[in-house]
Structure formats: C-alpha cells, structure tokens
Amino acid sequence: MEIMTNQRFKRTIKYLRAFLIVGLIGMVIGLVSFIGILIYAKVLGPPPLAVPQSTLYFSDDGTVIGESHHGQKRYWVPFEDISPDLVDATIAIEDRTFYRHHGFDYKRIAGAALADLKAMAKVQGASTISQQYARNLFLEHEKTWKRKALEALYTIRIEMNYSKEQILEGYLNTIYYGKGAYGVQAASQYYFGKSAADLTLAEASMLAGIPKGPNIYSPVVSFEKAKNRQGIILDAMKKNGFITKEEANKASMESLKIVGKHSDAEKKVAPYFQDAVKNALKNVLNLDDRVLELGGLRVYTTLNIKEQEIAEETVENHIAKDSDIQIGLVSMDPKNGHVRAMVGGRNYDESPFNRAVQAVRQPGSTMKPLLYYTALEQGFTPSTMMRSELTTFKFQDNRPDYTPHNFNNIYAGEEITMAQALALSDNVYAVKTHLFLGENSLVNTAKKFGITTDMTAVPSLALGTSGVRVVEMANAYSMFANGGKKIQPVYIERVENHQGETIYKADTHKETVLRPEAAFVMTQMMTGMFDRNLNGYSSVTGSTLINDMTRIYAGKSGTTDSDSWMIGFTPQLVTAVWTGYDNGSPIELVADKTYAKNIWINFMEDALDGKPAKLFRAPEGTVGVYVNPINGKLATDGCPTKRFTYFVAGTEPTEYCTDHLFHEKEEKPKGSKKEKEEKKPWYKKLFDWAS
To answer: What residues does the Glycosyl transferase family domain cover (predicted)?
Structure first.
C-alpha cells in the first residue's frame, strides 16, 4: 500500500513538473510572441488613418455648394472643433479607462467573457475606443478570426504611434450615428443642425448614446429611448467626475429641437459648374473617381453664388418655356481667369451635357476681334479704310470662288474704317483683312488666345466658321480685358486633403502674350458696337442694348444660321453667351435670335450692380485723338460727328478731315481719277487687283 502511494506521489510530481515546464515554455513563447508582435507593430509604423469621407465643394465665399456621399455623410473635423462635452460623454459611456489603458481593458474583457459564459451568449462588449476605432478603419466588418487578429494588431499600432487625443479624434470622426451620418460633424448637423463644436451638454449626451444602437437610440427613431439613454450617459458622466449633479439635472431637463435633416441642400448648386470642377480635378490633379467620391477632399472653387443665381434666373426669365433653344454661358474674372458663373443648359436633370465647355459651335462674327487684333499687330489701325461692297474672291490654286455676304445683303458701297466695320460687323471688310494677312495668321492668333479647337485656314474663317467652345471664347476676350495677359479658365482655387493639407493651388503667374497697346486699342474698338457715332449704312450691332446699359462695355455679337452669340466685358467681368439648338437647326424665330444679347446685358447689369463703373485704362504706347468716324481722319470743328479713338502710338492719323470745310451748295474740289489712284495705299491697290 505504501509502495503504491509513493508511486502515485512520484507520478503526480512528474506531472506537475511537466506541467510547470510546459507552462514555462508556453509563457516564454507567449512573451516572445508578444514582444515579437510589438516589434512587428513598431516596424510597420503608424497605420493610415484615412477612411472614406465626403468630398466637399465650396464657393468663393466658403459656402458648401455640393458634396459626394452616395447616401453617406462623412466629414472630418479636428479635435479642437469637437464639443468637450461630447468627448467626455463618449469616454464616460464607451471607455471610462481610456486614458489609463494601452488599447485593451483586460479587466473589462475578463468581465465580459464571464458574463457571456454565464448567459451562454454574447451579452456584453468589452471593446475599448481604440479597438472600435481600429474596427472602423476596415470597410468590411466580417466576423472572422483573421479580421479580429488584424483589428488587434491595428489597435496596438494605433496606441504605439498616436496620442490619445489623436485616437479620440479619429474615433469620433468615423463612428456611425445612424441615418447615413458618419462622424460627429455629420451627426451634429443632421440631428441638431449645428457644428460639432457648438453642441450643448444636453445635445452631446444624447448624441453619445446613439452609436450603441443607431436604429434604437436615435431621437428620430424613438425620442423616448434616446432620452432614457441620455439619462444613463449623464449619470455616467457624473460618476466619472466630468459634470456635477446640478449640471446633469439641468441637461436632462433641457428641451431639445431635433432637426432630422442633413445640412446640405438636396438641390445641387450649379451642377454644370460642379461637373467642370470634377473634370478639372481628374485632368489637373490626376485624381480618380474613388478619391473624388470618398477622399474627404475640400475643394475651394471660384464660383460666386450670387452671380450664379443671377445667371440661372436670367436664362429662365428670358427663354420661353416652350422653346427648345439651349444655352451655354460662362462668366469670368479677366484678371485671373476665375469662372464665376456657368450655365451649361436649361435643365441639368434632363440633359447634363455641358454646352458651356463641351459643345463646339461656330462663333460667327465674335471671331473678328481676334482677326482685327492680328491686323493691328501688322500695322492696320482703326482708321484703315477698305471698300464695303459685294465682292467675289477668286483664287489661283483651283479653289472655288468665295463671295461673303453682309447681313441682309446691305453694303456701304464705299470705303469704311476698320472701327466702323467692326461696329457694323461688315463681312466683306473682315474677309479682305483675313486674306491680306494670310489665312494662317488667324489660326495662329486663335492659339495665342487659348483656343484649342482646330481652326481651318479658309477665307470664311474670318466669319467664324470653325467651331469653338463658349469657355474658350470667354477666355480669349478676357485677354483683351486684362491687357494681354495669358490666362486659362480656373475653376478651383485650392484643394485640401482630409488632413487639411493643401495639395493643389491655382497658379497666379500671368505671362503677357499680347501687345498691351494693341489689346487696348482692340478693346476700345469693341466699345463701338454700342456707339451710335459709328452708325453708317446700318446701325451698330449693339443698338438695341444701349438703353439698358449703365456703364461702358466692350463686346461683339455673332450669328450663323444656327448659332447666336454675345460676348462682352468690363475690366471686372467677361461673359460669353451662346444660344442655339442642340441638333443644329436654323434659328428662324425673331425672338430666338435675340436671346443671347438680352441674356448677356441683363446678366452683366445685375451682376455688376453696386460695383464701380470702371473704365478701360490706356497703357503706355497708345495715343487718343478725335477722328471723323466716317473717314478715320482727324476731326475738325466742322465735322458733324466726332469719336475719341485710340491708336497704337505712331499709327494715329495725321491728316485732318476736309470733307466739311465747304458749305453744302459749294462744289468741293475734285481730284482727277488718276490722282486718286496714286493716293491709294499699296494694299488697297492689291485688293482692287484681286477683286
């Protein structure tokens, strides 16, 4: 018996020794594994804390005009912009030892495991804020051991590399509060219509209770349950020393107004403009669709909400409801190219095709200012004379004859100045100039003005037969308005990533590519379409708009069978308007032909209302003199009409008008035909020979 007892004792000692050895080995392995995990976590470094967030679009005054969300509102606000009461309420109810543990609350884990064991079910959670935040960094929340292991590793990495404040900031910006609201900012705006920084204790304590069960404790779902949950949280805050009993009672009694609506307007502001912005983000910053939708970008655009509203209202008020006419409108600041308003069509929901930036249409006579700028560079002046009459141009390279026609086939039948030709939109004068300069000259000039669409070097190019985009023409005219500086349409001032870092800023450097003096002379010539002093064989093309003008404008209208244009500007604002049918049908109704001009003048007047009426300033290298607008010579006291006209210095006329030195009944001296022929400049003789 004694021998058997000894054997049992020895066997027990043997088992105990083996158990201790195995235990020690297990402890060593566990310790080594734990150290290895810590080393591995340290080597991996801080995990990226970026999570899907809504990209926000702002107008030039900081107003949110749109966002990307796909039904989810995700914003990120810094820790200092979160109500301290919400921070305290969240800690009190979710993780009261948050500042004391290193990612895991082992006491809570043991207690939760015991409770689950007793109930034989999952009845109590033990996740810390750090663990929940790690879980939120995963888009997939599948319940697998692999995910749980990765979550634990993320928790360790988060605690090792980020401060408690940073962890709280990330958690509060990613937790789900129901109704599509992710993060405290989206939740604060949805439930209480205010920023997370402005929440009261009562609001914060109610908001902190929602994440436990968004479909249960949301005040929109059940205010009673939300209120009960608020009481629990206030009690927890009191026990943890965050608030006093009096503060808890006061917050519990406070009447809360639940908004239950996301702050952004469902109606998209300037949808055509926003599409142009997104396209710019893709092309300029090379961002893909996922980054645009979920990257949490803050895109600060150039849109002016007031001017955008004016543009949309003007279009709606002027175009008949039953008309199929479409529109493209772009308004820009000529100093920097900032696009301030854009209308790409009459109804975005029916047609998102952006006629302001996508449609390529014939510009008609709005191309003439670019042509005449080229002429000014080649020595022409506002007083350069050419004959306006029906002319057929013949070519020696087997090209067909070309006969341009004026509107209604009306011609001066005599010589007119370039200033008057522009104001009356004389087509014969334009084609003569174009052919004299060479058909490639206008093609090259168009590129200089930022026009990227292909130009065909043909005689009719002077009359705008090659298609362009509305935004390109607005940009080209801006270069006249700013004195010749090269710009391009700017939709975005700057872009910030989800961390508030600026990742893009618009270039502010502007290179001068036009001769400032020639650009100014051209601008002053374009004021002529609104000046009755330039009336001749027909009225100036802007005569119907003069009575609506309260300031000086420069501009040019243009028409083709299927296109109607008006582009004009002041030193502060350039606006281009196109109207026509999408299918290219002819514009036949008289009312349809007036839309572009009327929309332009009404928009400009309303957009500039209250702003100073600035004049175009003459740069160095220009000379202003009074001329007789009929013959372009220096005006005398006897001239019935005078117009103050600018010239590039050295090209101004030196000959005085002699047409009014004699009384009507007296016969004016006449020179012989031969003398007149000899006085003609060489390029006029060339035109006479060509025609």
So the answer is: 62-238
Sign, Cα dihedral of 222, 226, 227, 232: positive
CATH number of 75-253: 1.10.3810.10
The pLDDT tens digits of the residues spanning 74-85 come to 778 899 999 999
Q: Which two tokens stand for residue 72?
A: 């989810």
Q: What is the pLDDT of residues 506-525, one digit of tens each?
A: 988 889 999 999 999 999 99
Q: What length is written for the chain?
A: 691
d(CA 413, CA 537): 9
Residue 174's pLDDT band, with cuts at 50, 70 and 90, is: confident
- The Cα–Cα gap between 95 and 130 comes to 9
CA atoms within 13 A on the CB side of 353: 9
Q: What sign has the CA pseudo-torsion 234, 236, 241, 242? A: negative
C-beta separation of 572 from 614 below 8 A: yes
CA distance 418 to 631: 10
Positions annotated as catalytic residues are 94, 365
Longest dimension (CA), the chain: 163
Which of 124, 108, 133, 118 shows the shortest CA–CA distance to 49?
133
Query: Alpha-carbon torsion 505, 510, 513, 516, what sign?
Result: positive
Three-class DSSP category at 393: strand
Nearest-angstrom CA–CA distance, 426 and 416: 9
Residues 357 and 471: beta-carbon distance below 8 Å: yes
Q: What's the first-to-final CA gap in the chain, in angstroms?
A: 141
SS3 560: coil
Rounded distance between C-alpha atoms, residue 147 and residue 157, angstroms = 15
Alpha-carbon distances, residue 315 vs 47, 193, 467, 600 (angstroms): 51, 33, 23, 9
For tokens 């000899």, what's the residue?
A: 678
- Three-state DSSP at 315 gives helix
